[in-house]
Amino acid sequence: MTNNKVLLDWVQEVAELTKPEKVVWITGEEAQLEEIRKEGCSTGELIKLNEEKLPGCYLHRSDTRDVARVEARTFICCKEEKNAGPTNNWMDPQEMYLKLNKLYDGCMKGRTMYIIPFAMGIVGSPFAKYGIEITDSIYVVVSMNIMTRIGTQVLDAIGEDGEFTKGLHSKADLDPEERYIVHFPEDNTIMSINSGYGGNVLLGKKCLALRIASYLGQKEGWMAEHMLILGVENPQGEKRYIAAAFPSACGKTNLAMLIPPEGYRKDGWKVTCVGDDIAWIRIGEDGRLWATNPENGFFGVAPGTNEKSNPNALAATRKNTIFTNVGLNLDDNTVWWEKLDKNPPANSLDWTGKKWDPALGEPMAHPNSRFTAPAKNCPCIAPEFDDAKGVPLSAIVFGGRRAKTAPLVYQSRDWDHGVFVGSIMASETTAAATGAVGVVRRDPMAMLPFCGYNMGDYWQHWLDMGKKISNPPKIFNVNWFRTDEEGNFIWPGFGDNLRVLEWILKRADGKIGARETEIGFIPEPSDINIEGCDIDLDALTGILQVEKEYWKEDIKSIKEFYAKFGDKLPEYLAKEVEAMEERISK
Ligand SMILES: Nc1nc2c(ncn2[C@@H]2O[C@H](COP(=O)(O)OP(=O)(O)OP(=O)(O)O)[C@@H](O)[C@H]2O)c(=O)[nH]1
Ligand SMILES: O=C([O-])CC(=O)C(=O)O
Ligand SMILES: [Mn+2]
User: Mutation test of ligand 2: which of 190, 203, 205, 369 has the most ligand atoms closer than 8 Å to its C-beta?
Assistant: First the structure.
């Protein structure tokens, strides 16, 4: 398969440690993959769904104690603790290797070890990064085939002495107490053990394309971000691209696949999706920022996805998709999740595989149940999806889930101030990670769980990038999640978010004015088009205010957070929070 000596030696070393019964190199050929899917069905790892209604689709159930990313068990192991920073778990690399090697010892006994060569980015592109994931999970093999570009083409691209990220995964015995998701950025190595949940085990995604890639980006002068990328074409035929960073389960997939409201559709607005979760961003020869999506599929949140909220995502899941932890309709062998439609199938199994009983009031699908769907399935996938050079960004948008404080939208004064706006992001936690849901926490640039080095150095890297871009995108912050006294969302969201994007793009093109406030530029309410939208001008005006009392509270929390970084906190950010405090307390 390959003459790469480093790779061959490593595979042999891993096989000696984990002691599998069999070793299989994944070629990427359909016949081999189909064999593996069949094998997965015979072991129960996969359940084949209705071939007529959902051709090529499977259901997978992960262990009930293993349904989300585990941030408390995710580590960045670099030589010096200060390089991991105060927001990452750290352990000395040698100590961690020792600990892990004990856990991996014999963990694949009686199992098959699969070797998956994969690419993040387009194979052969100068921006692609290659990896090898060794795993004992069929779910991982078939999911990596959807989420990344895999097979012999990748081995050829790596070549005899090319570099690659080493990724070792084993389900082992799924012991939550011994679960580890570990990154050794200095060794370009990832080790994951005792989990079978996507975010912990599909090592190309968060582990390589964000944690390892953010570290490489800092060294090599580019950026790896937790961002969707979308294209917006207005009725004049002007096409613009936006990248947006929202924390997990805060609306990236939905915004990336937005369907314009009816009036906008009639006028000729078009939205296309380049990516829904990760953006790799570089400075182009023209001095602008260019973004690519290194993935090949969507690992999207299932609950809430329906014909109305996100028809594009739903359409993407109608073939060759793997569903994880959703409900199973026993009458026709299809899947169901909360809000798919109004009629939960009575004769069904819940996400754990037990008969579902509506009387218990429990959801049928897990709140973090997911679909793994090929990007090519998505009706609005952008023509630039396969273009290795990516798309030029007009705007970068940050956003979180905040019932209060953050207004619907505001714009930073300039790039540096935009870095500040990203650094002070906060959001309510969601089911995407284990732990409490709905607790506000600081999540800078939506990268809190994904930054592979010291977040203070990461902010400095953003500031340094700004100095090198002659024509930087404009930077904004949005919040679709403001609630009223009864806890209802005030802004209708989803397709109507295009109304806010329209303002953002007019600002980016310098076509419209705005009101300067203590936190940045805010639209005049009349500048957001709400014709045909389910919100009135009063309510809109309400969510476009700077509410000083809330901001004062937020500034306290920002300062506490910043204080953790000591001398790693860029001076500009330290000064800016003081300046903002002064403006707010006037
Ligand atoms: N109220 C409101 N809810 C939204 C909006 N957009 C998305 N959501 C909800 O937010 C949840 C998650 O949205 P996604 O688009 O899947 O989140 P994501 O950012 O892609 O998440 P990850 O895949 O975890 O990174 C779903 O329950 C959606 O229904 C919006 O504009 N308004
Ligand atoms: O990694 C996962 O499990 C899914 C995801 O996109 C996120 O949590 O942001
Ligand atoms: Mn994500």
Answer: 205
